[in-house]
């Protein structure tokens, strides 16, 4: 299962709950079978109804693990994660005897007291409960990080974060609005950047790193620590046979593509029809 498939799977809580319930139902059946084997070895009586009732402990994991996963997605602090795990353990151990008491009162001839079942739950299931919720927390946290890393950014979010025009100043400090599609490339000029426009060059108060996050990544590509170029203005590129490239822009400017950025540069040009030498 890929990261994207995992994301869309856990996004549907009904699927996640059904998956957990099925898995826990299997554990419940295994627990009943082990009860049967234990009673046979002890030469004691086996009551399926009671074993089924007390094995319902496993079914409580399904809703509580779903809630735990939901809360882990919302939190960013490690201390909050410990609080979530601790709360899940406490709620489970408190809810289990109440669940047994309620079912036995409504469906069985004999009622199992809350205190008796609570003591049984602590003795028989405490370590298992701690291990399951703790391991689930670790697995959910790892899955959360991977999902956030590989989660595809929506087109709407991309559009909101992409600028299409910029306000610059000329030598007379006159404010001018230029379209980024008309920019050939940007070059670093600390603490400023140079904007190489079709018509002229402008000085802008920003950094390439900051500007890179605001531009359309399908149109502008970093080719060097000091240069970012508009790929729509590239008319040719040529390998230097050492991992670097020379590119020629529409105004005949020649720039070097550093080998550190060559892979990303080539991938952005895959769908463009350029003259390669």
TrEMBL record:
Entry keyword annotation includes Ribonucleoprotein: no
Residues annotated as domain HTH LytTR-type: 166-271
Annotated TM spans: 16-34, 46-70, 82-102, 122-142
GO molecular function list: DNA binding
Record keywords, A-Z: DNA-binding, Membrane, Transmembrane, Transmembrane helix
Domain of life per record: Bacteria
Protein name as annotated: DNA-binding protein
Organism from which the protein derives: Chryseobacterium endalhagicum
């Amino acid at each position: 299962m890929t990261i994207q498939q995992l994301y869309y799977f856990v996004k549907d809580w009904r699927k996640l709950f059904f998956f957990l319930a099925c898995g826990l139902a299997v554990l419940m059946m295994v627990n009943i079978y082990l009860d049967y084997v234990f009673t046979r070895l002890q030469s004691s009586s086996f009551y399926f109804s009671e074993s089924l009732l007390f094995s319902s402990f496993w079914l409580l994991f399904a809703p509580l693990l779903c809630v735990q996963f939901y809360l882990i997605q919302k939190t960013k602090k490690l201390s909050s994660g410990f609080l979530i795990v601790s709360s899940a353990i406490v709620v489970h151990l408190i809810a289990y005897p109440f669940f047994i008491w309620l079912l036995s009162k409504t469906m069985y001839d004999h009622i199992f007291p809350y205190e008796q079942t609570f003591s049984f739950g602590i003795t028989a299931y405490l370590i298992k409960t701690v291990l399951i919720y703790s391991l689930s927390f670790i697995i959910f946290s790892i899955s959360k990080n991977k999902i956030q890393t590989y989660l595809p950014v929506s087109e709407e979010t991309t559009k909101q974060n992409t600028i299409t025009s910029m306000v610059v100043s000329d030598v007379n400090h006159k404010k001018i609005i230029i379209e980024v599609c008309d920019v050939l490339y940007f070059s670093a000029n600390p603490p400023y950047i140079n904007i190489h426009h079709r018509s002229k060059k402008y000085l802008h108060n920003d950094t390439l790193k900051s500007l890179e996050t605001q531009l359309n990544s399908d149109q502008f590509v970093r080719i060097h620590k000091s240069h970012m170029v508009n790929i729509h203005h590239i008319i040719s590129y040529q390998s230097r046979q050492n991992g670097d490239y020379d590119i020629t822009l529409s105004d005949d400017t020649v720039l070097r593509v550093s080998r550190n950025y060559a892979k990303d540069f080539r991938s952005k040009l895959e769908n463009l029809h350029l003259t390669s030498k």
